[in-house]
Design brief:
By secondary structure, the protein is mostly beta strands. The chain has no helices and 43 strands. It is globular.
Length: 426
């Protein structure tokens, strides 16, 4: 914690007599790089906040007719007293928590816009067909609000974050599509028939469903909900943290172009109220998803008391490819360095079962570390499990543990895997 103080000169005896901004550590020592100096008197008090959406605080002051801003290394989520009288309500109360409410009037995006700042959102955001919203700053979402991406619209989160602004979860991002169209079909106006969400260096946190490829909003007839499946997600080097479901795919029969690469799925000991981990990635009757070089990790240890059947990847009647990510060079012998996909601390690393389809799953270059079951395959024929590592926890003595559990399946290929002493195949 640092304390900011200003010293204002009301008159100048020389051009070297300037107003200053001092920053002190909690032990009273001066923060390196201070004081900051301006020539004219400083009006009011400095304000601390993230004004450029980089998740770091800036110091802003008014001096004469000029507004000055300096970058700092301060975490934008840890401002204890950032402005005159503490908060936007001017309470002067250190313990004050800004009230959270929901506005029933949605924010409608109907063209191409970029949000680079940090802001709190109290209502749903609806991105219309043909529009694109790019988020480069940090959004704090009120409880139970959501972002809806209509067919032909795009949400892009580039270096930004979307998380809860209150004590409860927000609903997440819904990407609407057209179940009867393939991924490249255009409508009569030249817009793609599928909505798109693009995540690059993004963070999605504290949501009921981080990203849903489908629709939950009421329609005239319940069966119409399935007409909105088929939306597209492209996620790269992004983090999904403390969501109940991080990414969910609803039924879609065309080959999907969605991909999740080099992403981090985490659940730690600090979720907002009401969130319990279910599955990181869920698929239902879905034709093809590619996942490469990702981490799926429950950071708190499994105990006998909390065993629940949550999964890194939960696949029902779906075709999924899980592989490492090449981070080296491609040669005639393949990639020189592969970043494995990693599963840790879960009941199932991967749970795959077929009820009404014959789709398969392929798993390569993946590490299953300290999961109750690394991979479960139930009635999944012709799958391939190759070049993986399985490490089974020593604890949980009353629980059946396995590296690879194959149940009522045939035609599979299992080879070149490494099982530790405790791991076994069923």
């Amino acid at each position: 914690m640092e304390i900011i103080q200003t010293v204002t000169r009301t008159s100048h005896s020389s051009i070297f007599d300037q107003s200053s901004i001092y920053a002190y550590n909690s032990d009273g020592s001066m923060v390196e790089g201070y004081p900051l100096e301006v020539y004219y008197p400083i009006d009011g008090t400095p304000t601390i906040g993230d004004i450029d959406g980089d998740s770091k605080n800036e110091i802003v002051v008014l001096s004469g007719k000029m507004v000055y801003a300096w970058d700092t290394d301060g975490d934008a989520d840890k401002i204890e007293w950032g402005s005159y009288r503490h908060d936007n309500y001017n309470t002067g109360n250190y313990d004050f928590v800004e009230p959270c409410f929901t506005d029933n009037n949605p924010i409608t995006v109907s063209n191409t816009i970029i949000w680079s700042d940090s802001r709190r959102i109290y209502s749903d955001i609806i991105i219309e067909t043909g529009a694109k919203l790019t988020i480069k700053g940090n959004l704090g979402m009120s409880e139970d609000v959501a972002i809806y991406v209509k067919p032909g619209a795009e949400l892009k989160v580039e270096g930004g974050s979307i998380r809860a602004a209150c004590d409860g979860q927000w609903q997440g991002i819904e990407v609407w599509g057209n179940s009867d169209a393939d991924q490249n079909d255009l409508d009569q106006n030249g817009y793609l028939k599928q909505g798109i969400v693009t995540l690059i260096d993004a963070t999605i946190e504290d949501a009921f469903k981080g990203v849903l490829l489908g629709r939950t909003l009421p329609v005239q007839y319940p069966e119409e909900l399935s007409d909105y499946n088929g939306g597209i997600i492209s996620a790269n080097n992004s983090t999904f943290r403390n969501n109940e479901y991080s990414v969910m795919f609803k039924p879609y029969s065309y080959v999907s172009v969605s991909s999740i690469d080099d992403c981090h799925f985490e659940f730690d000991d600090n979720p907002v109220n009401g969130i319990q981990l279910k599955n990181f990635v869920s698929l239902y009757d879905y034709e093809y998803l590619s996942i490469n070089g990702c981490n799926f990790e429950k950071k708190t240890p499994l105990t006998e008391q909390e065993l629940e059947e949550f999964s890194g990847i939960y696949s029902i009647d779906s075709h999924v490819s899980v592989d490492g990510l090449c981070v080296g060079e491609y040669t005639s012998n393949g990639c020189t360095e592969i970043q494995n996909t990693y599963f840790s601390g879960l009941f199932y690393g991967i749970y795959a079962a077929n009820i009404a389809s014959a789709r398969s799953i392929d798993v390569r270059h993946s590490t299953f570390d300290e999961n109750v079951t690394g991979i479960y395959l139930g009635q999944v024929d012709y799958s391939e499990v190759v070049l993986n590592t399985f490490i089974i926890p020593d604890g949980l003595s009353n629980t059946d543990k396995s590296g690879l559990y194959i149940d009522m399946s045939t035609g599979f290929i299992v080879q070149q895997n490494d099982f530790n002493a405790n791991a076994w195949v069923a």
